[in-house]
Amino acid sequence: MVRRQGLPRPAVNLERLTGQETLAHVPHLVKIYRAAFGGPPWHEDEHAADAFAERLRTDTRRPGFAAVLAGDDGEPAGFGTAWRTPAPFPTGRAYDLVRAELGDAVESLLVGALEVDELAVSPHARGQGLAGRILDLLCGRADSCWLLTSPRAADAIRLYERLGWRRLTGPDADIVVFLRSP
């Protein structure tokens, strides 16, 4: 995207989406996913992007599902998806790693909280506070929110710490879990 010098940058538009509205934007979300997670530390390939699209079709039916889509000058720039963590605390996916790190505390800390499953910002839109704005809109109505990331994702870890999220796992954990509560 080329901008002429001296012209003001258009405002990034954030839109909160329902599950059904999210499905209408799957191609945009997959495009952002590929751009955001194709490089280090993730190195997600086309298969992973296709798997994300398939997961998204299922995730939109979860109780409490919410999404935020950010657009920059008419182009998709970022998104976040979330839902309420059910009781009992789930198994599979990364849930088993979270339980291994936090033990039985997952039930009191994370069950019922809004679980941020994906947060992605396209490389062209980074460094403008967009991830924080997406999280604020996504989590704004929730009493508490949690998310996880890889210990290799140093930029993401710094972002969550800068935004005031509380790290629940130690420095040597196999997964990094953050909590935001009032």
CATH topology: Aminopeptidase
Spatial order of the strands in the main sheet?
A: 1-2-3-4-5-7-6
Question: What overall form do the CA principal axes indicate?
Answer: globular
Biggest pleated-sheet summary: 7 strands, mixed
How far from one another are the termini? Answer: 38 Å
Known CATH architecture: 3-Layer(aba) Sandwich
Main structural class: alpha+beta
State the helicity in percent bands: 25-40%
Quaternary status: single chain
Q: Strand tally, please?
A: 7
The sequence of SSEs as H and E is: EHHHEEHHEHEHEE
Radius of gyration: 16 Å
Low-confidence stretches: none
Q: Mind telling me the CATH class?
A: Alpha Beta
InterPro entries: Acyl_CoA_acyltransferase, GNAT_dom
Protein name: N-acetyltransferase domain-containing protein
Domain N-acetyltransferase: 12-182
